Amino acid sequence: MSDTRRRVKVYTLNEDRQWDDRGTGHVSSTFVERLNGISLLVRAESDGSLLLESKISPNTAYQKQQDTLIVWSEADNYDLALSFQEKAGCDEIWEKICQVQGKDPALDITQDPIDESEEERFEEIPETSHLVELPPCELSRLEEIADLVTSVLSSPIRREKLALALMSEGYIKKLLGLFRVCEDLDNREGLHHLYEIVRGVLFLNKAALFEVMFSDDCIMDVVGCLEYDPALVQPKRHREFLTKTAKFKEVIPITDSELRQKIHQTYRVQYIQDIILPTPSVFEENFLSTLNSFIFFNKVEIVSMLQEDEKFLTEVFAQLTDEATEDSKRRELVNFVKEFCAFSQTLQPQNRDAFFKTLANLGILPALEIVMGMDDLQVRAAATDIFSYLVEFSPSMVREFVMQEPQQTDDDVLLINVVIKQMICDSDPELGGAVQQMGLLRTLIDPENMLASTNKTEKTEFLSFFYKYCMHVLTAPLLANTAHDKNSKGALRFMRRIIGLKDEYYNRYIIKGNLFEPVINALLDNGTRYNLLNSAIIELFEFIKVEDIKSLIAHIVDNFYKALESIEYVQTFKGLKGRYEQEKDRQSQRLNRYRRDARSLDEDEELWFNDDDDDDDGEAVEKRMEDDFSDSYGKYMEAKRGKLHCHYCIWLPTHCYILTALVGLVDYPDDEDDDEDEEDEEEEQTPRKRPRLNS
Questions:
Q1: pLDDT tens profile 404-447
Q2: How far is residue 81's CA from residue 135's CA, in Å, rounded to a whole number?
Q3: In the predicted model, is pLDDT for residue 495 greater than 60?
Q4: pTM greater than the 0.70 cutoff
Q5: What are the residues whose beta carbons fall under 8 Å from the beta carbon of 317, sequence distance 6 or more?
Q6: CA–CA separation, 315 and 323 (whole Å)
Q7: Element (DSSP H or E) covering residue 25
């Protein structure tokens, strides 16, 4: 068994002042001949590679923080940190560092970092002046103490000396004692001085001071001092919020007292940073970097402790999916998992990967499949947020799960179909949930998102799955809108968008289904009226001509040109005929030149002359969609009558909201209503109708 005492994570501070995880390994201190000195070595636990090789320099300032962290700087803007799994291992390495530097291991910092601009002045200061002399901690001296603390902030070396003085004399707890006295006496002047003192001590940016100030017996007094900002007429009531309003809910009892304490501490420190402390000025913006690190490492530790407690997380998911769980309890469980996922976003990529893999192994996706279908809107909203974290982390993992579902469940409760139905039936007038679910769906079905997958067949398999099991659910509202022989221009827009993709898969489907026939019938029935419908249909055929979509041109000319050749007020259809003849001539010339046997035709020509084989792959999907439409439409109409209070019957025909987003094409102007009114008002007999195509 490996020595867990020496197990560490190596971190480096990046340009954005955030810690990057460089890997996990085991640390040792040994003499390295090449560096000519005792050095810290960290070898990766995965493959034994060298993660860190750092000579312990006699002049480097090492700091020990939170009992399990050692932090130091090796060069300008290059900070390093070792986070130990166990306190004993941290103590061993700390003693070795202090031994090399000849320092007392009882201290939490081995050197006083010296700013280069002050180094010469520092050499001239007498030895007895190395520490700042603090005034006695008395009520009458609070103004003097406040002036001292605020005066050192512009000088790095004086900040260091003041921090050492505050630690060596136990000064912080004495100051907090005076705070309680001032508050009892309602001494506003003293309380205002204590605000300046505590704020200044935080800006000293020292982890050792944070350990004292954020301990259980001090942190609420620190918050109390920060309530008395001299700029405010009345003090804030932060302690009341933290103790009465903000309640810590244990959805599953946390038996580890250290973990519970760490959660409380992290929440309160985050509150101090985000809510209480004013936005730092340009001069102060780097003063709280150690506070950021303090919160960061706390969060890493919390996530790691929860992640390693499989009994706790297993119980969470067991209760989450148990039918006997009360609604209020399930709501708390879902919100816990949501906050847990949000917490993990502060982790580095390697840690975040391990976190989501743990959740996947514990059954997060099957659990979401259940809770996302529940009636409780809050539960569904929180579950959707969790699902978004998973999709963002690994769309491939989600796809792999949903492709296995048909073997175990009905189509109606497939996870993606649940998402689609909630998107369509969003009860929010602003459609906030629908927009979020639409984005998740788009990520999952985006082919470009699949190209980077290590599984080369993912694109084919998942899209086939989606067309077979989900497409009929997605298109049910659109198909319902065009049922009963309605001349719906929502349908024409959709077809225009599909053709705009210039995807031969869709083109072959359009040809096989003879989907141009109703479009051309609509054009012929419209007569010679010049309106939006006429313009939209003409633009559709003009696009096919200009883009030279050969398969559609051939289909249109072969099957519909006799009905269209009489239309002469535009040259669109004659142009289609011309394109068709040009392509036939090119094909004839090519055949005559090479005299090839029909079996040797290249792939492009096969696609042109024979599309029967190409359509075989889609027949199963098409049959599935045809068989399922009546059932999906029936369920849709039932929901529309009021069972689910769906809203798509209002917005889908006009804006084609979902499908527009999925294919990402530009909409037509929404002025068809005016045209419909004009058509209704038109009383005169229209000119002779063009002959209608036989169906």
A1: 877 666 666 788 888 998 888 887 777 878 888 899 999 998 88
A2: 35
A3: yes
A4: no
A5: 362, 363, 364, 367
A6: 14
A7: strand 19-32
User: Does residue 589 sit in helix, strand or coil?
Assistant: helix
Nearby residues of 685 by Cβ (< 8 Å), 6 or more positions away:
none
- The CA-CA-CA angle for residues 486, 487, 492, to 5°, reads 125
The token pair at 166 is 């505050």
Q: Distance between CA atoms of 391 and 679, rounded to whole angstroms? A: 47
Other C-beta atoms lying within 10 Å of the C-beta of residue 648: 23
User: For residues 263-301, b (16+ Cβ closer than 10 Å) or e, as one string?
Assistant: bebbebbebbeeebbeeeeeeeeebbebbebbbbbbbbb
Segment 320-324 long-range contacts (CB within 8 Å, at least 24 positions apart): 320/367, 320/370, 320/371, 321/363, 321/366, 321/367, 321/370, 321/371
Q: What is the 3-state secondary structure (H, E, C) of 66-126?
A: CCCEEEEEEECCEEEEEEECCHHHHHHHHHHHHHHHCCCCCCCECCCCCCHHHHHHHHHCC
Q: What is the rounded distance in angstroms from the CA atom of residue 396 to the CA atom of residue 407?
A: 19
pLDDT of residue 196: 94
With a CB cutoff of 8 Å and minimum separation 6, the contacts of 526 are 533, 534, 537
Distance CA 631, CA 481 (A): 15
Give, for 539, the enclosing helix (H) or strand (E): helix 532-546
Find where tokens 């406040």 sit.
Answer: 146
Residue type, 609: F
Whose CA is closest to 509, among 524, 499, 520, 523?
Answer: 499
The predicted-structure confidence for 311-348, as pLDDT tens digits, reads as follows 888 899 888 888 888 888 888 899 999 988 888 877 77
Q: How confident is residue 552, by pLDDT bands cut at 50, 70 and 90?
A: very high
In degrees and rounded to multiples of 5, residue 160 shows phi and psi of -60, -45
The stretches of 565-611 forming alpha helices (DSSP H) are 572-594, 603-609
Residues in the chain: 695
Alpha helices in 405-488 (DSSP H): 415-424, 432-445, 447-450, 458-469, 471-481
Return d(Cα 479, Cα 652) in angstroms, integer: 11
What whole-number distance in Å separates Cα of residue 94 and Cα of residue 67?
10
Q: Looking at the DSSP assignment, which residues form a beta bridge with residue 41?
A: 28, 53
Using CA atoms, how far apart are residues 401 and 356, in angstroms rounded to an integer?
A: 14
Task: Give yes or no for a contact between 192 and 186, defined as CB atoms under 8 angstroms apart.
Answer: no
- What's the half-sphere exposure (Cβ side, CA atoms, 13 Å) at 521? 12
Of 5, 7, 9, 11, nearest in space to 293 by CA: 11
Three-state DSSP state, 666 = coil
CA-to-CA dists, residue 436 to 388, 420, 431, 441, angstroms: 8, 11, 9, 9
Question: Phi and psi for 139 in degrees, rounded to 5?
Answer: -55, -40
